Automatic annotation (TrEMBL):
Keyword Secreted attributed: no
Superkingdom of this protein's organism: Eukaryota
Composition bias, Low complexity: 24-41, 378-387
Residue numbers spanned by region Disordered: 11-74, 197-217, 280-327, 378-409
Job of this protein: Sequence-specific transcription factor which is part of a developmental regulatory system that provides cells with specific positional identities on the anterior-posterior axis.
Stretches assigned to coiled coil: none
Protein name (database record): One cut domain family member
SUPFAM superfamilies in UniProt: Homeodomain-like, lambda repressor-like DNA-binding domains
Entry keyword annotation includes Transcription: yes
Keywords annotated in UniProt: Coiled coil, DNA-binding, Homeobox, Nucleus, Repeat, Transcription, Transcription regulation
DNA bind region: 213-272
Chief place where the protein resides: nucleus
Molecular functions (GO terms): DNA-binding transcription factor activity, RNA polymerase II-specific; RNA polymerase II transcription regulatory region sequence-specific DNA binding
Length: 433
DNA sequence: AGTATAGATACGTAGGGGTC
DNA sequence: GACCCCTACGTATCTATACT
């Protein structure tokens, strides 16, 4: 199978086998890391049977040169270069994550390939993760080594002239296998219409009893979300006490509240990255109408971090001094709650400055020159370059942006003020914005 | 069916506090 | 000061579900 070809297997997680609703990371049912996949897919399969198929396939490699889609100089192939993918990631100069995801989306769409297949086969990630990555790629310099890995893989995949063919073949094989299963189960008198398709629906094989052990998914209602958002505006880092109060008020588990804050902070931060980039360079996911921020507002209600623009972002940045950079040092120490909204140190202009300039400043890991091994960004078209290579002179935001920010800040102050009044729990006198 | 979203969680790490 | 442990947070990702 291609699972092997791509160095992928879908091992049944022991925990899952036991029916323990184990989380992914520890025992990822997902696509085993296709580490070798990149290598093999690029190297070992050059002459594979797939190459002769798929006449309708739109090749990847040839249009790399075409305009803005150009992704850049090829990465060295892991196998050939003797580098593992991790080494490549570590050595890789800045890649243009937006250009890469854009290209990948293009290729997948053009060839009618799904995110699930691509994710599991090429990236070793699940569909949801792929969707997220493609829709909201973080700028390279904001990614950890682990976070960069999928982008390196995508880049390698784009470089592979047979990548699409291989994937399409995978698709066919999957379909075949599905049909086979379907047929056999039909002959057994069962139906597979449960919708389990594909090789990785391991859970589907769990017994009903095991399935029942699954925790029911928590779906927060609009009022609950609203309340949490308000609480966030008041205290992005709530104390355990606040969390408990919130939980009991909303009739939620404290862990759910904690998770919500966790996710909300994280996602807001991510939105901010993108927003910053757009503000600074105008290139990014937004350019093709896929801007997360835009999407957020599009959805109106804006959930994930939708709040981003509509409610949460500016105060986050201005009031809390939570920057785009790692602000842990600034916010961490004590019980965040108090000082985070107290503003104080977090708000130091120097820090904000550092935050903004850190974006693409010379000091950032964007490392202008990189290693020069296979520079992508530099080789990328001018449009893509701007996404991460913001001139050191600073993110020269346009005035419109600043006005907007001020407005939002004022707005949020207003909200916070009202919240203070309502809550009148903590002394807001120290709050600074 | 494929994609997007959001709650949940594993893992890594920074910083504080205690002990030696 | 070095070491260890603990806590809290960020990141990346998963899974289930909602949406298109």
């Amino acid at each position: 199978m291609y699972s092997n070809l791509y160095g992928l297997s879908h091992p049944v997680c022991p925990a899952q086998a036991e029916g323990t609703p184990k989380t992914s990371a520890s025992c990822s049912p997902a696509p085993e890391s296709p580490l070798s996949s990149a290598e093999e897919s690029v190297n070992g399969l050059a002459g594979d049977p797939l190459a002769s198929q798929s006449s309708s396939i739109k090749p990847l490699s040839e249009d790399h040169s075409g305009g803005e889609s150009q992704i850049g100089t090829p990465l060295p192939v892991p196998g050939h270069s003797g580098l593992s993918i991790q080494e490549m990631v570590a050595m890789s100069p800045e890649l243009d994550t937006y250009a890469i995801t854009k290209k990948v989306k293009e290729v997948l769409t053009d060839n009618n390939l799904g995110q699930r297949l691509f994710g599991e086969t090429i990236l070793g990630l699940t569909q949801g993760s792929v969707s997220d990555l493609l829709a909201r790629p973080k700028p390279w310099h904001k990614l950890s080594l682990k976070g960069r890995e999928p982008f390196v893989r995508m880049q390698l995949w784009l470089q592979d002239p047979h990548s699409v063919e291989k994937l399409m073949d995978m698709k066919r094989l999957e379909k075949k296998a599905y049909m086979k299963r379907r047929l056999s189960s039909l002959s057994d008198g069962h139906s597979v219409d449960g919708g389990l398709v594909g090789p990785d629906y391991i859970q589907g094989s769990q017994s009903p009893g095991q399935q029942q052990l699954k925790k029911p998914r928590v779906v927060l209602g609009p009022e609950e979300k609203e309340a949490l958002k308000k609480a966030y505006q008041q205290k992005p880092y709530p104390s355990p006490k606040t969390i408990e109060e919130l939980a009991s008020q909303l009739n939620l588990k404290t862990s759910t509240v904690i998770n919500w804050f966790h996710n909300y902070r994280s996602r807001i931060r991510r939105e901010l990255f993108i927003e910053e980039i757009q503000a600074a360079g105008g290139v990014g996911p937004g350019n093709e109408g896929g801007s997360p921020s835009l999407r957020g507002s599009k959805s109106g209600e804006g959930d994930s971090c939708d709040g981003t623009e509509s409610e949460g972002t500016v105060e986050t940045r201005q009031g809390l001094g939570i920057g785009l950079e790692d602000h842990r040092g600034a916010c961490k120490d004590h019980d965040m709650e108090a000082e985070s909204e107290a503003g104080g140190s977090n708000n130091s202009p120097a820090e904000l400055d550092c935050i903004t300039s850190g974006f693409a400043g010379p000091g950032s890991s964007c490392g202008q020159g990189g290693l020069g091994l296979f520079s992508l960004t530099e080789a990328s078209s001018s449009s893509s370059a701007s996404s991460t290579n913001i001139p050191p002179s600073g993110p020269a935001r346009n005035p419109r942006d600043n006005n907007l920010r001020k407005k939002k800040a004022a707005n949020l102050n207003n909200i916070i003020h009202r919240l203070e009044k309502a809550a009148s729990k903590e002394d807001p006198s120290e709050w600074e914005f």
